[in-house]
Amino acid sequence: MSPEPKGEVSRLDVDELLNYEILSQRQLIWRKFRRHRVAYFCLLFLCLFYLLAIFAEFFAPYGAFTRDTDFLYAPPTPVHFMDEAGDFSLRPFVYKIVSELDLNTFRREYVEDPSEKFPVRFFVRAEPYQLLGFIDTDIHLFGVDEGGVLFLSGTDGLGRDLFSRMLLGARTSLFVGLLGLAIGFALGLIFGGISGYYGGGADMLIQRMIEFLQSLPTLPLWMALAALVPPEWTQIQVYFGISLVLATVGWTGLARVVRGKLISLREEDYVLAAKLSGLKERAIITRHLLPGFLSYLIVHLTLAIPHMILGETALSFLGLGIQPPAVSLGTLLQDSQNVQTVTINPWLLYPGAVVVAIVIAFNFLGDGLRDAADPYKHI
């Protein structure tokens, strides 16, 4: 076969050119993010968890305040696929739970009665509720027939299902973090943008205010601000009050970074061109300067959400935030303040494990977004 003449494009080169894919900046970032397997898994986990929190009443087998006084501090109910005779069942089931008094320790213990079993059924009708706050229904994802109980995470001292309460409490904690983050994010952009773009006296005033807020110890400051919430407020008002408390001290770090970025970008040629074209200063900041470090802002959001969640959990745990009967992960952890109770009933710490899982997932997600923010690096 004679070699192809120089200067001509081979058929293989033509096919490669025809199959060449031109990707946008967003597509490059998404492709690199998907290669970060841990961050991608954490994104799926958080999406699933937010879905569970939004439709918590549907996924929870019991209501948040449904009590069963026959099962106080009951441990998690074992779910079986194989009975005592060794027969395998595709449908999971639970045995009947009976309580017995241990005469040696005078503690009530809960044991399984293999003589009676209850299959776990899906899309069952049970306690009525309002889905999304306005859809009246009584369908739950799973449950057991009357006479059986299914406590996946055990019960608390009042006989309430901890799994159902964790789903409903996670919704409060997760969205308190989002609301507080949105407020703090807006404050950080506004004050950081003014300080970095205008400079002068405004910059001096804002920076001194930031230094004052950052010099205050975080937890005592949260406690002092939360104590200002009037005791007669409803739980909805307390919800927004906690968000404002978290946002009050959550914007200073972002404002410092925004200021530094704007100082470095405001002398660029494209900013001067925007000024000469007659654009207003607010448009220059929002259309030209802030998009210049948008990737950092996205990463900041993912890393700030767990900080807000931990803040709400800490305040509610200390009794200064959302209070019972409202349900949040922080209020659920109030039952674990007694070391003796936790030693006997370790499942009361499950809400703390949920907080840890959410915070770790957000941190891995932020790490993946930080790496993907520069798609041209190590493609």
Q: How would you characterize this protein structure?
A:
The radius of gyration is 28 Å and the shape is elongated. The chain is of the alpha+beta class. The model has no long low-confidence stretch (mean pLDDT about 80). The chain has helices spanning about 10-20, 25-35, 35-55, 55-60, 160-200, 200-215, 220-225, 235-250, 250-265, 270-275, 280-290, 295-315, 330, 340-345, 350-370; strands at about 80, 90-100, 105-120, 120-130, 135-145. The chain folds into two domains: about 75-150, no CATH class; about 165-370, MetI-like (MetI-like fold, Orthogonal Bundle), CATH 1.10.3720.10. The chain has 15 helices and five strands.
Please outline the helices and strands:
Elements: H1 11-18, H2 25-35, H3 37-54, H4 56-59, E1 80-82, E2 88-102, E3 107-119, E4 121-131, E5 135-143, H5 162-198, H6 200-215, H7 218-227, H8 235-248, H9 252-265, H10 269-276, H11 281-289, H12 294-317, H13 329-332, H14 339-344, H15 350-372
Antiparallel strand pairs: 1-2, 2-3, 4-5
Helix pairs in contact: 2-15, 3-5, 3-15, 5-6, 5-8, 5-9, 5-12, 6-9, 10-11, 12-15
Q: What kind of sheet is the major sheet?
A: 3 strands, antiparallel
Order of helices and strands: HHHHEEEEEHHHHHHHHHHH
Cα distance spanning the termini: 37 Å
CATH superfamily of the largest domain: MetI-like
Indicate the radius of gyration in whole angstroms. 28 Å
Q: Structural class of the secondary structure composition?
A: alpha+beta
What tags apply to this protein structure?
two-stranded antiparallel ribbon; 2 domains; three-stranded antiparallel β-sheet; alpha+beta; 379 residues; MetI-like fold
